[in-house]
Design goal:
This protein is an alpha+beta fold. The chain has a single domain (4-459), classed as Amidase signature (AS) domain (Amidase signature (AS) enzymes, Alpha-Beta Complex). The protein has 16 helices and ten strands. An eight-stranded mixed β-sheet has the order 3-5-4-9-10-8-6-7, sandwiched between helices. A two-stranded antiparallel ribbon has the order 1-2. α5 runs parallel beside α6 (179-185), α10 (308-321) crosses α12 and α12 (335-345) crosses α14. The model has no long low-confidence stretch (mean pLDDT 97).
Length: 470
Amino acid sequence: MASLHDLTALEQARAIARREVSSLELVNHYLERSDQLDSTVGAFAIRTPDEARIQAAQVDAQLGRVGLSPLHGVVIPPKDLEAWAGVQCRLGSAAFHFIPEFDDHVVTRMKEAAFIFTGKTNTPEFGLPSYTEPEVAPPARTPFDLTRTAGGSSGGAATAVASGLVAAAVGSDGGGSIRIPASCCGLVGLKPSRGRISNGPNGEGVGELSVHGPIARTVSDAAAILDALSTPFVGDLFIAPRLARGSSFLQAASMPPERLRIGRFATPIIVDVPLDPEVLQAYESASALLESLGHEVIDIPVPFPANIFSYFEILWSSLTAAAQLEDSQFEKLRPLTQWLFEKGKEVSGAQLARTISGLRTIAHESLQKMSAYDVILTPTLAQLPPLIGAMRNDENPAADFAAQCAFTPFTSPFNMTGQPAISLPLHWTDAGMPVGVQLIGRLFDEYTLIALAAQLETAEPWLHRHPQIW
């Protein structure tokens, strides 16, 4: 008989609905596994067993009611960048330790869908790096090679899912922070369109780069989570168009798309770096698979200007400098965060305004260049997951930042355009390491992206692939 963590999130929910297992039993199973493995993989910033058991008992008592979520009672935690009322929040930083009085909107939607939180997942300081090695928790490691990073900034979420400590997770992505760890950990990582999931109530970040999204073992699980989180709140600055009545993203996962026109490129966007041969193999194999499924795959030039990274760098550092810090807190920040903070302080208001305006122009032009294609294909990363500590450089934060850019030169431009993008684990090395490929959809067209991703999953399944610690 399969263990409970072998079941997908949707399978677990169906078992709960049929009363074959209770949510409380599921919670206890995951808590026991977390006791055994969390210190090894670095999944959680904080664990909340008492709160999880209370939540589980409450949702078990609701069984039999009409209109329950398709993921009712399943363990799907938030990240430690999100406010969960009454529960410690560290933001991955030694400089912060506070108890929020309210839930972020994404956490509100997660509670409404009856997701259970066994903790808050690990994140680097302020979610800034593309690796997860905070001062306040162990480093997040990919369970497929415990010497290597799980990526960032949703590294804790990804390793929790890939290690069988949760059914799925909700991460956030301002420059690749869902897709990067999904690739490192052999998972589905979906960055929705800007405005699909509320960023409230604290307002949008500089440049509106960041969005929330699912990290899951299957496309269907990710689609069901997206359905649960996609209802907007009054006052949201960006609101994506709703699906037609009766449609859902989960439905898209069972609806193979018609023949699509797919543009592809493998030239790094933000920096000129060589690609690992395994990355190129993943890209070429995905292209061949798409063609075998009847889609038209076309080589296209990079649809972004060569200077796009300068815009991202200004926004990223300005976003860091926007944090309100006392001198005593600043001293506790990691050198990388201090470096970004100081760079952001040097940006004038006029320069920031020009950057945001210029980036919007670039986004419009780039979207126009991609408009002839239903989907764009690129690698997710340029390299395999580096060793723990290999990118981090406290003595030279500029080198640290450069190493991150060399690792992930394909993801951040699509935060700037606001398009949906998904990383899929379609390739695995002979040593058993996952290598993701990235698919990017038209703005607000997660439906087609999910339908194509599910078609690829059916053709080249990955659910059977587990790390040794599974």
